TrEMBL record:
SUPFAM superfamilies: Phosphoglucomutase, C-terminal domain, Phosphoglucomutase, first 3 domains. Transmembrane segments: none annotated. Belongs to the phosphohexose mutase family. The keyword Oxidoreductase does not apply. This is Phosphomannomutase/phosphoglucomutase. Residues 7-133, 156-256, 266-371 form the Alpha-D-phosphohexomutase alpha/beta/alpha domain. Its cofactor is Mg(2+). Pfam families: PGM_PMM_I (PF02878), PGM_PMM_II (PF02879), PGM_PMM_III (PF02880), PGM_PMM_IV (PF00408). Keywords: Isomerase, Magnesium, Metal-binding, Phosphoprotein. Residues 376-449 form the Alpha-D-phosphohexomutase C-terminal domain.
């Protein structure tokens, strides 16, 4: 097919509309290029519940096997289940999913052995170049026998591994509503939660890649309305929502109120530090709450601030030997999970923390949720650089402010901070701000938006 790979190959993965932007013939080329770049003799693949996923995954496997590489297909799985297989088997892996994107999309998340990320700087650019060079003629044939393609179920092993990382033996009975959004959480949750003292109220567990109930993107408040209502209706202790490929989890308390991912990051950081003797490095991206580094220090740890994006988090995790990392977008990374992200393990930590004491979740997380945040606000702009320069000009030179450009522009005072980052893929600026009180947060937010939107 004629394909524009500049629109298909993103910073961290492959993602586009099927069949308009890519199809099984292109997936086969990606399989061949993936094994050439990684030098693998064997790989593992998995896929989500989207209608196009089985065919794309099978084509990728054919492309790899044609180059003499043995392929283990674990079939239907969550993205973190694929990372588990990559780590447990010591093999590079490829997961076919478009995460929370609408049904017409699909993609590939690739990793090296041990779930090490493959992004633009770690192999994805080379994979793209190879595929582009093969678009007209196909992948060149190689000598030697074709690799084998075998199927293997890893769900039970994945679940057992996760449960071995969190002590859930003495938690009190809990009632939990889980909204799987017709995504892969409906496949993994029943097995992972099996045997725990939980009354599980399932919502949208039917695997359906057309997402008939709502988008599988809990970061959008509209998509957790059903969960919030059900938690209140059931009198549940908490609610958990997973995104389409179930690598992110979002939590609501017993009142149906969302728990900010920064508060979950702080809670899990405190637990992981306790599990590691009260010491260790915790990674957080620069738009998580002030609460995160504060809690880390209070619990004996060392916070390390990094850019937004899983490739940066994973690289810093490996460099620093960090035991845990968290992002504002509800990605949670664990050293004991090959530095990869798993929302399911974060969910188990929340269940363990809540079930290990008698109070409600709202009271438990209050100690980790200390400030007022705006959430991420996107603005379409004509010139990202000019708008950023205007913001810098408005705030630089003031003695009580610090400015840094680790990722976009961050301006910090004693009582508030904000960060403005350009999108890599769209003409957007993303604003996050936080303050010690609602009035200050609103004032800063509106000032910066006034500059962004001119």
């Amino acid at each position: 097919m004629s394909a524009d790979l500049s629109q298909l190959v993103k910073a961290y993965d492959v993602r586009g509309v099927v069949p308009d932007q890519w199809d099984e013939s292109l997936a086969e080329l990606f399989g061949a290029a993936f094994v050439q770049v990684t030098g693998a003799s064997a790989i593992v693949t998995g896929h989500d519940m989207r209608p196009s996923s089985p065919g794309l995954s099978a084509a990728f496997a054919r492309g790899a096997a044609a180059r003499g590489v043995d392929v283990t297909e674990i079939g239907l799985c969550s993205t973190d289940q694929l990372y588990y297989a990559s780590g447990a088997f010591g093999l590079p892996g490829a997961m076919f999913t478009a995460s929370h994107n609408p049904a017409k999309y699909n993609g590939i998340k690739m990793c090296r052995a041990g779930a090490a990320p493959v992004g633009q700087d770690t192999g994805l650019a080379e994979i793209r170049q190879l595929v582009e060079s093969w678009l007209d003629s196909g992948a060149p044939e190689v000598s030697g026998p074709t690799g084998t393609i075998t199927k293997r179920d890893t769900l039970e092993d994945y679940a057992a591994h996760l449960r071995g990382l969190v002590d859930l033996t003495s938690i009190r009975p809990l009632k939990v509503v889980v909204d799987a959004g017709n995504g892969m959480g409906g496949h993994t949750v029943p097995t992972v939660f099996a045997g725990l003292p939980l009354t599980l109220v399932p919502m949208y567990f039917e695997l359906d890649g057309t997402f008939p109930n709502h988008e599988a993107n809990p970061l959008d408040p509209a998509n957790i309305v059903d969960l919030q209502a059900r938690v209140r209706e059931e009198g549940a202790d908490l609610g958990i929502a997973f995104d389409g490929d179930a690598d992110r989890c979002f939590v609501v308390d017993e009142n149906g109120d969302p728990v900010p991912p920064s508060a979950i990051t702080a809670l899990v950081a405190a637990r992981e530090l306790a599990r590691n003797g009260g010491t260790g490095v915790i990674i957080h991206n620069l738009i998580t709450s002030w609460s995160v580094p504060e809690v880390v220090k209070e619990n004996g740890g060392t916070p390390v601030r990094t850019r937004v994006g899983h490739s940066f988090i994973k690289a810093e995790m490996a460099k620093s030997g960090a035991i845990f990392g968290g992002e504002h977008s509800a990605h949670y990374y664990f050293k004991d999970f090959w530095n990869a992200d798993t929302g399911m393990l974060a969910a188990l930590h929340v269940l363990a923390a809540l079930g290990g004491q008698d109070g409600p979740l709202s009271a438990l997380v209050a100690q980790y949720d200390r400030y007022v945040g705006s959430g991420e606000i996107n603005s379409t702009v004509d010139d990202q650089g000019a708008r950023l320069a205007a913001i810098r000009a408005a705030y630089e030179g003031q003695d009580d402010l610090t400015l840094d450009e680790l990722d976009g522009l961050t301006v910090t005072s004693a009582d508030w901070w904000f960060n403005v980052r350009p999108s890599n893929t769209e003409p957007l600026l993303r604003l996050n701000t936080e303050a010690r009180d609602e009035a200050t947060m609103g004032k800063v937010r509106d000032e910066v938006l006034g500059i962004i939107r001119g």
